Amino acid sequence: MEKIQIFKIFEDKEEYWNPVEIAKIEDVAVRVAKIQGEFPFHTHTEGDELFIVLKGEIFVDTEGKSYNLKEGEGILVKKGVRHRSRANIPSIIMLVEPEKLVTKPKVD
Questions:
Q1: Burial class (CB in 10 A: 0-12, 13-18, 19+), 60
Q2: How do residues 59-98 score in pLDDT, each as one tens digit?
Q3: What digits encode the pLDDT tens for the residues 39-58?
Q4: CB distance 79 to 38 below 8 Å
Q5: Distances (CA, A) of 99 to 13, 24, 50, 61
Q6: Residue 84 burial (CB < 10 Å; 0-12/13-18/19+)?
Q7: In whole angstroms, how large is the CA radius of gyration of the chain?
Q8: Phi and psi angles of residue 100, each rounded to the nearest 5 degrees, phi first
Q9: Please, are residues 35 and 17 in contact by the beta-carbon 8 Å criterion?
Q10: What is the dihedral of CA 9, 50, 67, 12, to 10 degrees?
Q11: Residue 33 needs a FRET pair 20 to 30 A away by CA distance; which of 9, 51, 56, 64 works?
Q12: What global pTM score does this model have?
């Protein structure tokens, strides 16, 4: 076992929207990403996606509603729901999702 230092992963990285896998549990991947700006609307067909804000503040938009998430908050986006995430400030999120889920999905 090794301790995972999530914030240290991003100390020297300026790149946004590039998830880093920090753990795998069975067929579920735990990933962290630094985000800012807006990711396009898209839909995952491979499975659900859990967003948890570790640092900063993000928005997860669906076609009908926008969810504002602050540090320590999260939301589960069910498979097949069209959505996008966005952040006005640099933010760090954790994603819990099927390992096979495409982290840079095809935009629809």
A1: buried
A2: 999 999 999 999 999 999 999 999 999 999 999 999 999 9
A3: 999 999 889 999 999 999 99
A4: no
A5: 23, 8, 13, 23
A6: middle
A7: 13
A8: -80, -5
A9: yes
A10: 10
A11: 64
A12: 0.91
